[in-house]
Amino acid sequence: MSSSNPGSGSGAGEALIERAFALLGSFDSEHRALPLAGLTHRTGMPRSTVLRLARQLTAVGALERLDDGRFVIGLRLLEVASLAPRGHGLRAVAMPFMEDLFHVTGQHVLLAVRDNDEALLVERLSAHDAAPVRFRVGERVAMTTTGVGLVLLANAPVDVQERGLRAFVPVDTDDTLRTADDLRRGLAEIRRGDYAVARRTDPRAPRTTVAAPIRNGRDVVAALSVVVPSPEFDPAAYVPAVRATARAISRQLTTTDAFG
Amino acid sequence: MSSSNPGSGSGAGEALIERAFALLGSFDSEHRALPLAGLTHRTGMPRSTVLRLARQLTAVGALERLDDGRFVIGLRLLEVASLAPRGHGLRAVAMPFMEDLFHVTGQHVLLAVRDNDEALLVERLSAHDAAPVRFRVGERVAMTTTGVGLVLLANAPVDVQERGLRAFVPVDTDDTLRTADDLRRGLAEIRRGDYAVARRTDPRAPRTTVAAPIRNGRDVVAALSVVVPSPEFDPAAYVPAVRATARAISRQLTTTDAFG
DNA sequence: TCTTCCGTTCCACTCAGTGGCATCGACGGT
DNA sequence: ACCGTCGATGCCACTGAGTGGAACGGAAGA
């Protein structure tokens, strides 16, 4: 079946679980509340199917329904998701230390983990008067364009690194990483120094990120970073603080063990 | 649970979605990683069914599998859950203000919303040296035994309040709320003053909570609180700070509108 | 008023999901 | 080393849970 349809081919159904998560996945940060028609359009599934599915999801609390009939992601998912060891488990351990770092630097503090070939932002602390950051908690970000991403990529299995190098596309707001070879050298440098510095020369919001790895035993399980607007102090001044905090979290993590 | 299926005709299963969430729900804070057998036992479903379901959930990222074969909640759920307006949507707006309150008071800061007849903890800020708190982010807490719960209950629809009053069981670490009538008066008092103070005389960790409602327009959508160890200063000293912060969040919330 | 779009209900078909059974493998006790 | 136990996985005939096309009612808009 050629997928002339947006979404999935017609046919009699993918696995239900897959469909359910496709439905949940049709929400995004610009569409936190969707009417039935929106869900139908975004999933490419028949109306009746979407309605039935959405109702079942509502019944278990994965979705909630607003007064105007639109659907939104429900609290049940928050409840379940809070048990993810690599998500809130990690977060619970890291938060107090991130607080400290945030307090001392007054800059954005980010915590991210690797999920396959992408990084996923687990936590972000921001002052309301701080420079805006693009990234939302729960959002996926490319590994080659962020400080945390670079740290995670540098410490990822070789196959992930190779895919990352192969898929690398230079960003025009980054004048240090132009080629895949630059990236390769950069990753080696990050492994050697155990931290990363990424500069963005975006004229609207130039900023520099200092990132360091967080370990559970030997494995790098997350990355911590501070994002500072570039016309600020020398970013190098933040390196010790970020590294020290990352190591503190690592120690705590190794002793407590986030997994049951 | 009970051996095999209860005789009621449904030999072949509840709705699949229901089962999937029952499976996800069998994780809890003491069991963040479960082997197949654990899932089988906790759900009461047949082995093969659990395995198939768990695999499908793993395929979509709702679960992840550790090297030792155990299952854990996956990052995909965190990603989806972060779009819940009443969860991370609210959180995103409230966080900077909570940060401020946290820095000023140095005490636990809690953010909770009501979900039917319970309160659900959406965010918690804690210093590492602060007194331990029982409540985890994502956890459900009774409405009559916490500061945030009382605020939410006081501003809930009448039917919720009535169920709360009817189901009320006094806690022996609370010497101010002994009867349902105490509770009724307490709720009225909370509505009048627009804040709540709850004292716990637990000998091991006596503490006092100051809580205030957060509004989106007219509706109370959440509650904010500060938890202080009781041998501290007069809790009344925290009331203005908590109320002011709650109002600041309310204003921000009303102007930005957490829903898309 | 007429048209259009949306949410909803209904129903006969059928394939995805079911679960009992057999097999394989990993420990652990004697 | 041997055996016993338990947990994980593969297999497969059965069946009812899920499917989606069609039709209905109602609200918004022209």
UniProtKB/TrEMBL annotation, chains A, B:
One Pfam family cited in the UniProt record for this chain: HTH_IclR
Entry keywords, A to Z: DNA-binding, Transcription, Transcription regulation
Presence of the UniProt keyword DNA-binding in the record: yes
InterPro entries: GAF-like_dom_sf (IPR029016), HTH_MetabolicPath_Reg (IPR050707), Tscrpt_reg_IclR_C (IPR014757), Tscrpt_reg_IclR_N (IPR005471), WH-like_DNA-bd_sf (IPR036388), WH_DNA-bd_sf (IPR036390)
GO biological process, one term: negative regulation of DNA-templated transcription
Keyword rRNA-binding: no
Domain IclR-ED: 76-255
GO molecular function, one term: DNA-binding transcription factor activity
Domain HTH iclR-type: 14-75
Protein name in UniProt: IclR family transcriptional regulator
Organism: Umezawaea tangerina
